[in-house]
């Protein structure tokens, strides 16, 4: 029987891009998942994915194992759209391959190895998505500190415009802006301040304050140049329906996150999105 593992996508409540500069970020694992099945083979049979290939090689080093494997990936997470699809695939691959090799990784080990996979493939990355996918729930990433947060379950609307943007290119664009403009560096620091406030509010159970901080974060992301017309249309559709909303992830295209997940907010976002759906905090990586 093949080893089968799944891992959730992730969304930023506050803090994307700034987290690359060691500012804090607040995320949640979302209940859309990537599933990976692994079995022994006569020779490697891997998907055309740099993340899968890097994850398999890192697991071989971890387990001191050279057996060829066949890897199959399925996912209902939009690709390159700000919901941590590559992180979920990396996490699920590491978990499944390590189990197939008889050296199963614990979630914290998976998170560390998946972060290394993302750095190898993207060049510059943060541990936010990979840690969130491995551990599940609400997560704070603040420099070297990574922890889960006990907070009320909640429902969020995700709007997806059908597009995608390469994470590495979006991160590099912000890096160039920060290098040449001191104001951009101040904006990154301001995002970090919002994240601190959002963590405190979430820990006290005040999601209304978190929602207001999401709106402010969107304004700062606009200033960094990572939003787009399609993302802005979805954001304002949600706001016109009484919700708070922002893009999630690297930006450029992809997904927005809105709270609260009222029927009115979902219907409004659906009018300007290719797809609109509701998510809740999800369990981390698991065996299937």
UniProtKB/TrEMBL annotation:
<comment type="similarity">
    <text>Belongs to the GHMP kinase family. Mevalonate kinase subfamily.</text>
</comment>
<dbReference type="InterPro" id="IPR036554">
    <property type="entry name" value="GHMP_kinase_C_sf"/>
</dbReference>
<keyword id="KW-0444">Lipid biosynthesis</keyword>
<dbReference type="Pfam" id="PF08544">
    <property type="entry name" value="GHMP_kinases_C"/>
</dbReference>
<dbReference type="InterPro" id="IPR006204">
    <property type="entry name" value="GHMP_kinase_N_dom"/>
</dbReference>
<keyword id="KW-0547">Nucleotide-binding</keyword>
<comment type="pathway">
    <text>Isoprenoid biosynthesis; isopentenyl diphosphate biosynthesis via mevalonate pathway; isopentenyl diphosphate from (R)-mevalonate: step 1/3.</text>
</comment>
<protein>
    <recommendedName>
        <fullName>mevalonate kinase</fullName>
        <ecNumber>2.7.1.36</ecNumber>
    </recommendedName>
</protein>
<keyword id="KW-0443">Lipid metabolism</keyword>
<dbReference type="GO" id="GO:0005829">
    <property type="term" value="C:cytosol"/>
</dbReference>
<keyword id="KW-0418">Kinase</keyword>
<dbReference type="GO" id="GO:0004496">
    <property type="term" value="F:mevalonate kinase activity"/>
</dbReference>
<dbReference type="Pfam" id="PF00288">
    <property type="entry name" value="GHMP_kinases_N"/>
</dbReference>
<keyword id="KW-0067">ATP-binding</keyword>
<dbReference type="InterPro" id="IPR006203">
    <property type="entry name" value="GHMP_knse_ATP-bd_CS"/>
</dbReference>
<keyword id="KW-0460">Magnesium</keyword>
<keyword id="KW-0808">Transferase</keyword>
<dbReference type="InterPro" id="IPR020568">
    <property type="entry name" value="Ribosomal_Su5_D2-typ_SF"/>
</dbReference>
<dbReference type="InterPro" id="IPR006205">
    <property type="entry name" value="Mev_gal_kin"/>
</dbReference>
<feature type="domain" description="GHMP kinase C-terminal">
    <location>
        <begin position="199"/>
        <end position="277"/>
    </location>
</feature>
<dbReference type="GO" id="GO:0019287">
    <property type="term" value="P:isopentenyl diphosphate biosynthetic process, mevalonate pathway"/>
</dbReference>
<dbReference type="InterPro" id="IPR013750">
    <property type="entry name" value="GHMP_kinase_C_dom"/>
</dbReference>
<feature type="domain" description="GHMP kinase N-terminal">
    <location>
        <begin position="51"/>
        <end position="137"/>
    </location>
</feature>
<dbReference type="GO" id="GO:0005524">
    <property type="term" value="F:ATP binding"/>
</dbReference>
<dbReference type="InterPro" id="IPR014721">
    <property type="entry name" value="Ribsml_uS5_D2-typ_fold_subgr"/>
</dbReference>
<keyword id="KW-0963">Cytoplasm</keyword>
């Amino acid at each position: 029987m093949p080893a089968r593992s799944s891992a959730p996508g992730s969304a930023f409540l506050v803090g994307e891009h700034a987290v690359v500069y060691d500012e804090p970020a607040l995320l949640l694992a979302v209940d859309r998942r990537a599933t990976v099945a692994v079995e022994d083979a006569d020779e490697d049979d891997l998907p055309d994915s740099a993340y899968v290939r890097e994850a398999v090689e890192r697991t071989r080093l971890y387990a001191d194992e050279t057996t060829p494997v066949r890897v199959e990936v399925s996912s209902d997470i939009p690709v390159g759209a700000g919901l941590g699809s590559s992180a979920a695939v990396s996490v699920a691959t590491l978990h499944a391959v390590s189990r197939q090799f008889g050296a199963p990784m614990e979630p914290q080990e998976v998170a560390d190895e998946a972060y290394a996979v993302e750095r190898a493939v993207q060049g510059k990355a943060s541990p936010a998505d990979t840690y969130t996918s491995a551990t599940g729930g609400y997560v704070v990433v603040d420099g070297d500190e990574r922890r889960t947060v006990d907070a009320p379950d909640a429902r969020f609307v995700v709007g997806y415009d059908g597009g995608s943007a390469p994470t590495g290119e979006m991160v590099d664009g912000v890096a160039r802006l920060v290098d040449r403009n001191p104001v951009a560096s101040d904006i990154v620091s301001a995002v970090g301040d919002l994240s601190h406030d959002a963590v405190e509010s979430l820990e006290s159970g005040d999601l209304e304050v978190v929602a207001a901080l999401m709106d402010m974060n969107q304004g700062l992301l606009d200033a960094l140049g990572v939003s787009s017309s399609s993302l802005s249309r979805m954001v304002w559709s949600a706001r016109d329906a009484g919700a708070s909303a922002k893009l999630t992830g690297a930006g450029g295209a992809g997904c927005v996150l809105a709270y609260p997940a009222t029927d009115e907010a979902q219907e409004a976002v659906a009018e300007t999105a290719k797809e609109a759906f509701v998510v809740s905090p999800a369990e981390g990586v698991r065996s299937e």
